Structures are given as C-alpha cells and as structure tokens.
C-alpha cells in the first residue's frame, strides 16, 4: 500500500487495575502526520487487552463513517495485531467477540492494513487514552 492518501490510525487502550477503569485513545492522521480526527473515551471497567481491542474497533467504526478508503492501523499491542492477522489464536471469549466484530468491519474498508509499532511511536493515542482516564466525567 502506498502512503499517498493513506490514513494512519493510531489506537491505544488502557486499564488501571487490569481489570479496572479503562479508556481508549484513537488518532486519525494523514500521510503528513497531521491529526484530523481523534477519540478519547472511557469504556467502563475492562482488562488492558479488551481496551486495546475496543480502541481498534472504535477506530474502524469511525473510519467507515468517515468513508476512509486506505487505512493503516498502528497499535502497540502485539497481541491484538497478531490476533487480527490470524498469527495468534484468540482463546479468550471476551477478546473473540471483538475480533469477530473487527473482522466484520474489515470488509467495509477497501484497503485495510494493521501493524505493530513500538509504544514510543504511539504516544498520541496513549495520551488520548490517558486524557479520558483522567477526566472526571
């Protein structure tokens, strides 16, 4: 996939307590690295892995609503990336629900790509998840 007209969607989930209060952060950026849309949401109590999956799911939902065609999702959760690519089996029933939802949404995205990135390259999504965690509402 060429990067021209590609949207890069950085996703991150966080849980304080694992399980505990959880939130997601999702940053939509153009191929120049300029953010044009973001999500910063509390998701209730969840494990870190559920939060990571929910961040991907919400990013996919919004990408479809925005009618984005070429998307490269970037996550610092190696587990979610490898499960989504089919390299790891999904044994946890809660995670399997999200995998199935994401697989279903994937068919609505003409050019879908997902890749693992180191945490240091996912700072904006992490920041958005933490903003949601720290918001009192």
From TrEMBL:
SUPFAM superfamilies: Ribonuclease H-like. PROSITE patterns: RNASE_H_1. It comes from the Bacteria. InterPro entries: RNaseH-like_sf (IPR012337), RNaseH_domain (IPR002156), RNaseH_sf (IPR036397). Signal peptide: none annotated. It holds the Pfam family RVT_3. Residues 3-134 form the RNase H type-1 domain. Gene3D superfamilies: Ribonuclease H-like superfamily/Ribonuclease H. This is Ribonuclease HI family protein. It comes from Leptospira vanthielii.
């Amino acid at each position: 996939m060429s990067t021209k007209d590609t949207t890069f969607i950085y996703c991150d989930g966080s849980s304080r307590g694992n399980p505990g209060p959880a939130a997601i952060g999702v940053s939509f950026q153009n191929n120049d690295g300029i953010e044009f849309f973001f999500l910063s949401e509390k998701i209730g109590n969840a494990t870190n892995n559920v939060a990571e999956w929910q961040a991907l799911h919400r990013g996919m939902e919004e990408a479809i609503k925005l009618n984005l065609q070429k998307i490269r999702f970037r996550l610092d959760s190696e587990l979610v990336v490898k499960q989504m690519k089919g390299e790891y089996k999904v044994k946890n029933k809660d995670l399997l629900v999200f995998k199935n939802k994401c697989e279903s949404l994937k068919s609505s995205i003409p050019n879908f790509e997902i890749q693992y990135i180191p945490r240091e390259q996912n700072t904006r999504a992490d920041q958005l998840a933490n903003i949601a965690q720290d918001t009192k509402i």
